[in-house]
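Incident log, structure service

09:12 report received: a user says their structure output differs between two submissions of the same chain.
09:20 pulled the input from the user's history:
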Amino acid sequence: MFFRRERPKVLTFRERVDLLRQAGFGTESLPDGRVKITKHGVGAIVGDTDMRQPEIERAGVLVGSEIATLLNRGYQMFLETPRGIRVPARADQLKALHEFEADVKDALGLVNLYNTSLGTTSRTHMYDRVFQRDTGDQPKAWEDKDNRFVPPDTKGSYRT
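09:34 re-ran on a clean worker, output below:
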């Protein structure tokens, strides 16, 4: 008479790694328990968190055997290896990295957030670009003492 819902099965980290293998990813176990996954010249390090939820610790394009992560310099994206070698990122590499991250999240059953689904993101870049956003000390444009902002005059042209 009473209906019971089936309890969702919580997959272990090893079962999730097996799902990655079934999805066509190459896997390599690392000595510290993490797993390096690769596919089409892109790789990532996946670790197990305390909540039995996998975490993509570092994703990037493979440069030799190293995973080069994205570095945003404002005018261009670069790939930087752990040894500090920087190479300019090409459009095909960025597209492959974005597709790779989406495929990994899909295979692991992770949530793909809106901002990351729009394009390739870098973990080292602050995207909102609001000056001193977290301190609450943002200067108002009309209170700027350096006169960097000059309001337009009544005719709509800017004063110099």
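09:41 both user submissions now match this output. Likely a transient worker issue. Closing.
09:42 reviewer note: The first strand starts at residue 26 and ends at 29. The helical segments are 13-22, 91-108, 114-117.
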